[in-house]
Amino acid sequence: SGSTPSQRRWSRPRARLLLLRRKKRTVFKLVTGQPPLPRRKNGTRRETSAKTQQAVFERSLRARLAPGQHFWDAAGATVDDIRAAVGCFAAKPSVEVFGSLLQGTSIDGSDVDVRMVFGTVGRSQAVRYLQLLMKALYRPPASRTLRLVEAILTAKVPILRVRSLRQGSSIHADVSVGGSQQGACDVAVHDVLECDVRARDLVRMVKHWARQRGLNKAYHGYPSSFSWVLLAIFYLQQLGMLPPVNRRKDVWKRLGNPPSLQELLRNFLVFCRQIQYGCGMSVTTGKFMPKEDAVLFIEVPCEKGQNAARSVRFPQWREVKSHASDTLSTLDSQEGHVWSVLGEQKLRDPHVRAWSSESE
Question: Where is the Poly(A) RNA polymerase mitochondrial-like central palm domain (predicted)?
Fold first, then answer.
């Protein structure tokens, strides 16, 4: 090829080094959406801007909180198994997904909310249909893929808790009976969260924070996961990041420079700590409303007068405020970081590690 063996011996490592640098620059651009900062003449890289560091961090946080493809595949398989189990019913009900999957607020490990739609049914009829499903779960083929965990038939909304038996799946599903019109509130939540990408990120952070501390158990007197979703949406409406549900999205003016995710979480906890007894909120109008007969009142969108936080009791809400104060103390400390309050010790995104090693 015209070059001496010595030249070829030195050119190959240099070619590999140039290729490695090119790959790292490509990874950096995929993560941050912009090329890396140029190097100085002495070979050192300029200090990374705060905006770039924030973009890398929020991208890693978003990837950590959002459920992976395995979750969606397992959830879809569980819903198909439930459809097969109710296929033996004479009424032939349709099976619909609602809740966090329809809202787009699922986190890793979320339950799947499934509803058998029979039209207009009373509570006694709903219990009877769930009892029929219980019998079907003990017979093949449903017994091979689903297992009954708990039957809560005395609640206001009777449900069956089932678990998937598929290999590698740990999905739990709550099966209830209702009408198709009951999914309007989930669609409204999904649409309003589409207005700002950080809104969905904050909702997932809040749900993860509440689950890590056991503050999302409605049957123990705490706010439900849906209550935390609506509370986060109402807080963002007060900031101007999200519009009210009853307002047209095309005429709403978005907030120009929204805070970072860590600032949003911190200010949300301050907001929760300041909520007083008898405070009512409506995400439909985006305004406060007096409700002196409830510890916490969060109106369900598209269902006027319905309280999503009707399960909250005063001692449990006081405990929520105490946890919020502890988290704020952690965030305000010198070593405080959002990963520490979410139960994470370090970034787990390999792209971020590749960028970090390149910038050192």
Answer: 89-178
